[in-house]
Amino acid sequence: xxxIPVADATFIACMEDIxxxxxxxxxxKTPLVCFNETTKQLIMEKQLPLSPIPGHLERYxxxxxxNGVRNLFIFFEPLIGQRRVMIRERRTKHDFAYAMKFLVDxxxxxxxxxxxxLDNLNTHTVAALYETLPPEEAHRLRKKLDFHYTPKxxxxxxxxxxxxxxxxxxxLAKRIPNDEVLHIEVDALEDYRNKHNSAVDxxxxxxxxxxxxxxxxxxxxx
Length: 222
Known about the structure:
The chain is an alpha/beta fold. The chain is built from seven helices and seven strands. It has helices at 6-22, 93-107, 127-132, 135-144, 159-172, 179-195, 206-212, and strands at residues 2-3, 32-45, 64-77, 82-88, 114-118, 145-149, 219-220. Helix 5 (159-172) crosses helix 6 (179-195). The longest helix is centred in the N-terminal third of the chain and has 17 residues, at 6-22. The model has no long low-confidence stretch (mean pLDDT 90).
């Protein structure tokens, strides 16, 4: 018989489900979209930073003023190297519902079904649609969305997290004072990467997982 802890079995099932999705061929009628979110603290300078000069990087004063926090949703289609970032003031279940409506109605209106890879946050649920929108609207969106969750503590399986790490390094690491500058910075990087169809070189497959994560898989017992 097979002997495996329930937690490991759940992890394996979710992981292999995600990895199988990544091996599917591209189909515009059923696009695969990786969804994730992060926050950005807006920081205003009390004094203008000193411009960089030979031998010195740009220098900031230690004093600053907090100017609120913004939530960034990313929709990343890895098979064609396209992404879209939505910026909102909060990260509630209602914001998630409106993000899914934007995904269905604005980004992929012609799709028959959208396969969505997302993390197991408590706001990332179908119920959020019904708690936010009229029932007929929530039902319409639900029929167009096919959610696939990464295992608990394994958000690294979501390629949108890799994409966000690039945004973090390229434009979000520095101090950004307000919404206008945040939109300019994010839109510029989004546009650049979309024009170059920048994708993720994903090589981790189910076969790889059964070797590298062998300790999670069961042993056969007589």
